[in-house]
Each structure stands twice: as structure tokens, then as C-alpha cells.
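Reviewer 2 asked us to include a model.

Predict the structure of this chain.
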Amino acid sequence: MQSIKDKLDQLAKALGKPVIDTKPLDYRSLRKVYDQQANDDITRLQQSAKIKRIDNIYGQSDLNPKWTFANLEQDSQDVMEAYSIAQSFIAAHSDKAWRESGSHMMLFYGDYGRGKSHIAGAIAHQLIEEYEISVLYRQLSTLLEMRYSAYDFNSQDNIGEKFRNAYQQLLDVDLLILDEVCVNETTLKKNAQSWLGNLLRQRLADNKNCILITNHNLAELEHALGQYCFESIKEYDTYKVRFSGPSRRQKVVPEIPEGQRVSGYQPNQVK
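Predicted model (C-alpha cells):
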């Protein structure tokens, strides 16, 4: 006597349909299939969560998206050396003991347009992608202007509260990048020196890392920041990187050949 399965198989053949193997899987096979499906689901969830975390870090970082190593022109010795130091700094983050051993600072100094901000941003991008390091990029002059505005008690835009929130971010973020340090400043005001020195010392105590970017040489920077603030920098495990190559910024006005230059003011001539 034919079983129901045999009859269904014959019907399937008559209709030209494939015969379905309904042989039940054993427990171990089923468990293996279900475990794999569960692991795949967990992996997808983890990847999705990581993408969201990285997006959140980028959202607060204020980084230039073009500042990546892929866009970096290694066309001079100073940039190649800076790139090598940057890669060593990034690779060190894989060592948990190094990350917890103290505070580290990279000090980039040199003239305008040499690639200092670009490499700092590229370091930040890679640390976010590989280690989910939180990053904040700020210009020091902007922070000081906000700080001075916070003392305007007649202000109606809650600038004081905004500055307190901004200052807390400066303390909490894993990597703080301060650009344009003492730009157009021979010497910072004493209260600004103290404020920056205290910020760096608090981050030092919490094992937080920094990158400082300046157009001054080291002697000028020490004078501009003052002894108290500069001593804060010395407390860090500091990597000093000097940028001395050619400017990579495009010229706004083309150079005029020496023989065609006209010196002094030339008024319009009325014919």
C-alpha cells in the first residue's frame, strides 16, 4: 500500500514538478543551522550598531571629510616623516596598556599650508574607523571668542550655558584637536593662558590625548602660551612634528616675473 508521501511524489512527477525531500534533519544538524542563523543575525546587528556609533562620532567631530590619508600628497620629506609618525601613533591604539598608561600629545608646527591640519584630520578619521575613538576638532581662537562672550551677562542667547556644554565636550572627548593655536597672537592674555593650561591638565589627569596645531616655532609657542600652559604640554608624552615643506595651497594671484614688477603706488593716468 502506497504511503501519502509516495502518492504526492507520483503526482509531482506527473505534473513535472520536482520531488521534495522531506527527510527530517537530525537534532545536531538542526542545531548547527539555527546557531549559524543566530550568529549571522548577531553579526548584522553588531555591524549596524557600529555604523551608528561611528556616524555619531563623526557627527560631533566637525572634521573635514577631505582630510584623509587617501587624499594626502606625500611629496616632501617632512610629510613622509609625519605620515610615518602618524601611523605609529594610530597603531599604538591597538595596545590597551598603552592607551591606559597616560596622556599623549602630537604637536604639529610649521608655516601655513604645509599639511598639518590635513594629517591631524586623517589621524582622526582612521582612529574613528578602526577604534571608534571619539574626536573633536576645534580652532582655539573660536573657543576663546566663545569664552569671552560667555561673560556677557546681558546676552539673551544662553551663550554661557552653550560654552559650559562645549567645555565639557573638550574634557570628555578621547582625542581633542586644537588648530590655529595662538594664530596671529604673539602672547595670549593671561586668563586665556590659564584657561588653556587648566584644560590640558584636566585632560592629562584623565588620560586623554591631544593634537595641537600651530604656525609658531617651539620657542615662539612657549612665549605665546606662557610658562604655566607650556608646562602642561611638557607633562604629556609628546611627539613634536615640524612641517617645513612647500605650501600646498593654490596661489590666488599669479606671480609676476621680476622684470615686469612695478614698485610703489601707480595712480590711474587720464589721457
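Confidence is low (pLDDT under 50) at residues 263-271. The CA atoms of residues 184 and 252 lie 21 Å apart. We have added this to the supplementary material.
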